[in-house]
Amino acid sequence: MNPSQPHDRAAAKTTRRRNRTPKLSWAKRLERLGVLGYFTLMRRTVRIRVTNDRRDEICHQSDRQFVYALLHAHQAAAIALSDPNTGALVSRSRDGELLVPLLKSCGCVPIRGSSGGSKGGATALTQMIRHCQDGHPAVIAVDGPKGPRGKVQKGVAKLAQKADIPIVPVVLVPKRRFLFAKAWDRMQLPWPFTQLDCRFGDPISVAADDDLDDVASRLEVELAKLELAADPQEAERSQEKSSIELPADATGLNRAA
């Protein structure tokens, strides 16, 4: 017998154990099943009211895709809006883990990471750029993964610049919702059968020589204005805790809208 064989067998067993997908407990399986069932029902029953939707114009007139830019608080509602093959940047948190099977069931492509400056975030951003360059849309919760609420990370600007696609700001506000008031983002879950107010901002183009911090600041203001129009109470609460400065006439104009 070759004396190296026992060692080889042990090494092979170790490799198999490392490559083996961890088994989920029954509690975890039930949790995932419950989340999947809830969001499937929500996605099939919500009524979406859309304002200023220019997605077809982008795709058909410019022959390009785009990246949705939304608040972390609205990412659950975005499940109702997602199109097949949309690349979704999903955090590596427990909440993100729950979203992965749900996104896959909708035909979306979950990409794990964040829009921040971490190593994992940089890798995920590279994958998102390739995904968009291959002709698919993407979606990013731009103030994730840990906030502050409404503070846009510049990853979405870098994605738009590198992939040569516009940013489409969007807020999604359910008429009836569960609100996680103690969470940093005040996450919102739409009730099934409710109405979802989906408001798009004008697309933001990012040139090769644009300053990414400036683009992020413009996007911050646009999202704040959209939320102020669609959900004044949440918007004002967020602005009280942030440094986002809206134009002097933004409050009056958006409330009138």
TrEMBL record:
DUF374 domain ranges (all copies): 84-149
Name the UniProt record assigns to this protein: DUF374 domain-containing protein
Pfam family, one: DUF374
Domain of life according to the entry: Bacteria
InterPro entries: DUF374
Biased composition (Basic and acidic residues): 1-11, 234-243
Positions of the UniProt region annotated as Disordered: 1-21, 230-257
Native source organism of the sequence: Allorhodopirellula solitaria
Higher taxonomy: Bacteria, Pseudomonadati, Planctomycetota, Planctomycetia, Pirellulales
Coiled coil: none
